Amino acid sequence: MSTGWPCEMASAPADSLHRAGWPAEHEAMTTQDIREWVRTELWDQVPVRIAVIDRNLRIVEANRAFGRTFGPWRNRPCYTVYKGRAEKCVRCEASESFEDGVARVREEEGKLPNGEPIHYLVRIHPIERPDGHIPFLVEMSTDITMLKTLEHEKLEAERLAAVGQTVAGLAHGIKNLLMGLDGGMYMARSGIEQGNPERMIQGWGILEENVARISSFVREFLEFARGRTPRVQLVDPNEPARKVMELFKDTARLAGVELTADLDETIALAPLDEEGIHSCLANLVSNALDACDTSDKSENHVTLSTREQGGVIVYEVRDDGQGMDYDVKKKVFSNFFSTKASGKGTGLGLLTTRKIVQEHGGKVSFDSREGEGAVFRIELPRNRLPQPRAEADDE
Ligand SMILES: Nc1ncnc2c1ncn2[C@@H]1O[C@H](COP(=O)(O)OP(=O)(O)OP(=O)(O)O)[C@@H](O)[C@H]1O
Ligand SMILES: [Mg+2]
Asked: Is the pTM of this model over 0.70?
């Protein structure tokens, strides 16, 4: 019988395994026995859930660990066993691997027989015949629920630590604004005392302006502290970019900045929290416009672009504003750092952006040269994007 094993292995003395810690009672085992053991025991003893699925997405073979975790599986569809679904998943990686023969790795959220959620990392390997036909896929899943919980707790702890630091920043910011209120009150009161309506109106104006600043400051802080649950749905990734362009077009025109969009219209739908991505892009565009406002150049440009590269959706906001020096670059994402005037910047924009992007499994990066401008980039690998809402709901 052909073993399929390398001949060195086939003739390897069993005692070399004994030296490597193989139990003494197994000393007399032949290579054939070992092979048999691997086939019958290792399959069931590895702490990895292994399943073999056919082209109808039915599970035709699975090991003991798989059955223990996901319950009865024989001839049942993978989406029912893994996720308790009645229908195929909205995005089916297995079908893609049957199509293109490419192995895939993906994080998934499933449902255990007791209804509890499970996060697992699944490696999908096509089994390809010499004629190129792929009758089966092997799926190997590792339980990463604990890791996911820790990751979530870490993000939450970081957010709360950041909230603590913001409270200090907030108190400081409000103190400055209170000074503004004092000034306004003084002016309004002296206007009343002197019967000087012009002074009264001027004082009242200062009061209004500073009260408005305090309320927007507090609102922004509360939004950050509370956090929000992402609403993930299949959307056109360009849609939030178009809305942000619309939102900022007048501001840019008034500031004398040329704001342009360069959107790749071929990007396919993706599971995104559109509102979250919108607020990330709004943060980046508003930072870019601010950077142009303080630049020395007579003309400034800001470009918002999108593209997809090797399964990664990329948003980019490029400006030729004041750029950043070494010190600013070191601090942009930390410590609620803002170089803007009190009341104008709270230093929460990039932090919130990073949080939302991380919730999408992506990252934010930037390049900048002092005096030349900056480019901020959001990269969202498709295979790390969260499951769309509709899919999670009907599980
Ligand atoms: N495009 C850019 N060009 C130059 N500096 C930038 C740019 N984007 C961000 N920065 C710097 O990073 C700092 C932090 O930005 P961030 O968006 O976090 O806060 P902010 O804009 O100051 O305040 P907020 O967004 O909360 O109103 C900014 O104050 C600025 O110094
Ligand atoms: Mg900002």
From this structure: no
